[in-house]
């Protein structure tokens, strides 16, 4: 493998398996590889193979959001688009050799019948879940949050403050 540095290829790097978590290179390599997924999704969306979600005022809808090793894929509920998304994810696993943990993945729906949600989850090999759900420490919801949706965060802050007071 060679990298492009300022538009010029570097010398060839011998690739091996076994990059460990905590390795200084693992973070940058992960970012490079996940950026490939993001670019593939953008091209697929541009060609009509998948469709993200977003306000009509924004040109090109959002198909992917990433933070560290968390990825959220956003899609409409078109059956063909879900099939294409599945193919993209499997191809993505083959290309860099990363394994997507579908057991830790969940499918959430906004205004989609439960039968469709289950069918799509089975197709993708993941479980279904409901919103709101905590994501990166905050509740993720399809609509306005209720006061009770913030309870887990308030309890967490209260625990931290009481531990701080006790010390």
Automatic annotation (TrEMBL):
<dbReference type="Pfam" id="PF00078">
    <property type="entry name" value="RVT_1"/>
</dbReference>
<dbReference type="InterPro" id="IPR043502">
    <property type="entry name" value="DNA/RNA_pol_sf"/>
</dbReference>
<dbReference type="InterPro" id="IPR000477">
    <property type="entry name" value="RT_dom"/>
</dbReference>
<protein>
    <submittedName>
        <fullName>Uncharacterized protein LOC109506762</fullName>
    </submittedName>
</protein>
<feature type="domain" description="Reverse transcriptase">
    <location>
        <begin position="1"/>
        <end position="140"/>
    </location>
</feature>
């Amino acid at each position: 493998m060679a990298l492009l540095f300022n538009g010029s290829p570097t010398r060839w790097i011998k690739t091996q398996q076994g990059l460990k978590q905590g390795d200084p290179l693992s973070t940058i390599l992960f970012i490079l590889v996940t950026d490939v997924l993001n670019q593939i999704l953008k091209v697929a969306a541009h060609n009509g193979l998948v469709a993200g979600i977003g306000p009509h005022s924004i040109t090109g809808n959002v198909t992917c959001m990433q933070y560290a090793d968390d990825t959220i894929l956003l899609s409409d509920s078109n059956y063909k688009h879900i099939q294409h998304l599945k193919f993209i994810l499997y191809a993505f696993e083959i290309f860099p050799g990363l394994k997507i943990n579908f057991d830790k993945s969940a499918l959430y729906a906004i205004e989609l019948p439960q039968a469709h949600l289950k069918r799509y989850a089975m197709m993708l090999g993941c479980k279904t879940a409901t919103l709101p759900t905590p994501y990166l420490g905050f509740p993720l919801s399809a609509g306005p949050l209720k006061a009770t949706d913030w309870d887990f965060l308030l309890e967490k802050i209260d625990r931290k403050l009481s531990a701080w007071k006790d010390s």
